[in-house]
């Protein structure tokens, strides 16, 4: 039978720990320091580490949004971006960009044809020109174009009114990507959508979707482009001119 006086005595190990920690005060101090490190110091370390990586990322020219526009204007890289967008369930953004560029191309084609008809001084109108064939060709063989010697930047202005001959393509674009019930609606700011609607009701211009395109490019730049860079950075550098 155990002696009751001995049973009530704490084990030697507990007494030793108690003496070393000065009655548990040292343990409390260590726990407090650990909690301070985890809750304050560690997040600060992660913040500066992330900031350093972010600065390094944006200082690299290939990581700039200006370079990303070059990627968007390179058909082979745009195809790769589309494949990524499909996996990320955001393919509507890439489709928006492709069709936005098609509209711009058609506007430039219109300006070229309009100038050609004006110089010929004929009574023939542009309504006889087959814009539908140009649209189908653009859809099948997408290629971006920009103002050149044929169409100067001063001639191609986003403030020009949408020609009646091609306005149907602009309205189809709206119902596809802007309308809330559209099959491939993109996430735009409410203010941008209102501006588009107001412009169509007053004085629609060929730049009616420019702000929307800027927002979509920003979304792709932050969500899809980092993935493309991780997968094919060297390939991108060798492809973009």
TrEMBL record:
It comes from the Eukaryota. Keywords: Membrane, Transmembrane, Transmembrane helix. Gene3D superfamilies: Regulator of G-protein Signalling 4, domain 2 (1.10.167.10). The chain crosses the membrane at residues 26-48. This is RGS domain-containing protein.
């Amino acid at each position: 039978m155990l002696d009751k006086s001995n049973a009530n005595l704490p084990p030697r190990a507990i007494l030793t720990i108690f003496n070393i920690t000065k009655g548990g005060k040292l343990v409390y101090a260590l726990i407090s320091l650990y909690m301070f490190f985890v809750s304050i110091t560690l997040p600060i370390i992660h913040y500066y580490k992330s900031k350093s990586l972010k600065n390094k990322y944006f200082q690299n020219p290939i990581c700039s949004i200006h370079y990303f526009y070059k990627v968007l204007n390179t058909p082979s890289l745009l195809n790769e971006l589309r494949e990524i967008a499909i996996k990320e369930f955001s393919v509507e953004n890439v489709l928006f960009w492709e069709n936005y560029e098609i509209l711009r191309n058609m506007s430039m084609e219109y300006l070229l044809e309009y100038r050609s008809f004006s110089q010929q001084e004929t009574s023939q109108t542009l309504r006889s020109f087959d814009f539908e064939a140009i649209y189908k060709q653009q859809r099948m063989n997408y290629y971006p174009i920009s103002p050149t010697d044929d169409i100067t930047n001063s001639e191609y202005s986003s403030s020009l009114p949408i020609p009646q001959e091609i306005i149907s393509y602009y309205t189809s674009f709206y119902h596809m990507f802007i309308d809330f019930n559209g099959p491939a609606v993109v996430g735009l700011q409410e203010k941008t959508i209102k501006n588009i609607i107001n412009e169509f009701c007053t004085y629609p211009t060929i730049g009616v979707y420019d702000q929307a395109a800027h927002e979509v490019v920003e979304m792709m730049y932050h969500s899809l482009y980092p993935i493309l860079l991780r997968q094919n950075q060297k390939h991108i550098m060798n492809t973009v001119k």
